[in-house]
Amino acid sequence: MATEISAVQAPAVQAPVVPQTRGVPALLLKLRALIALAVVVAFFSVAAPNFLSASNFLIMFKHIAITAILAIGMTYVILTGGIDLSVGSIAGLGGMAAGTLILNGVTLQPLGVVVYPGVPLVIAIVLLLGGFAGFLNGVLVARFRVAPFIATLGMLYVARGAALLLSDGATFPNLVGRTGLGNEGFPWLGSASVLGLPVTVLLLAALALLAGFVARDTPFGRWVYAVGGNERAALLSGVRVDRVKIAVYVISGVCAALVGMIVASELVAAHPASGETFELSAIAAVVLGGASLSGGRGSVGGALIGACVIGVLGDGLVMMGVSEFWQMVIKGLVIIAAVVLDQLQGRLTAAGRA
């Protein structure tokens, strides 16, 4: 008699084993993020004055943390074979939502009062908002079978429009709160330091450890790899593929909302255009770190190294005085190179399988 698999007793699914290619080209492709990081650090150490100073490294780490947090969420999405183009807009919406909660509070119409939540509650509300936006992305992709590119592109416009509507396109300035309202302390998130390290960097470290553990050592992580490696096989093995897809987009949305608050906190202001092109940096970091855009291959650690490459490149170009227009060209070339290398690694993997 056939036995029915319950949701609680679903079988453990191992991540698909990717055949290992051999030879120097395969090794170079596998280590491409580390090689790229070493090259850009060596170049800017010579070409950019004060690049190796302690103060510059602290600033650079804060910039890297923003891309890296987005890349952590994006890694989970890409591991399932998806893509999330909405993270930049969700980040902008998260900053604006925090701004309106701090400056304008929440109006309770039936009671005729305005409630100003404290900073911890503001953070919780904005994270929930980011998670909800990710949930909508996941439902569109998993339940309605909308292509991830189209679903998240639509959310990109929805979130950006919502951010603009919150202030009619204006900036929320001076997000320090007021003592009498009990909502002070928001700048701490993006500007404070603990033991000489920025809070942003410590947040990144905690998130990276948690995300790496979940991806590597939990059933959910194995399900994520399984869905990206072979969705049909994962479904037949008892994995609830739709739930896994929804979950990874929720994770990405929460990471994006956190980044939006960090940026607004650091600037002590929220602008509705904040976060533009963040999604491109996050995708480039993940692919540079060795993830496959077709899913099933990648790691949180690789994404962090890729984020370091993007961050060092951006800050180094600024220190050299390179114009913003050339910076866009160079970053675009980096993204193209990352995708080309991903395709080349995929061909070598296929050759190793043959």
UniProtKB/TrEMBL annotation:
It is found in: Cell membrane. InterPro entries: ABC_transp_permease. The keyword Ligase does not apply. Coiled coil: none annotated. CDD domains: TM_PBP1_transp_AraH_like (cd06579). Signal peptide: none annotated. The chain crosses the membrane at residues 31-52, 58-79, 86-106, 118-139, 146-166, 186-215, 246-265, 300-319. Keywords: Cell inner membrane, Cell membrane, Membrane, Transmembrane, Transmembrane helix, Transport. It is a multi-pass membrane protein. Pfam families: BPD_transp_2 (PF02653). This is Erythritol transport system permease protein. It comes from Caulobacter rhizosphaerae.
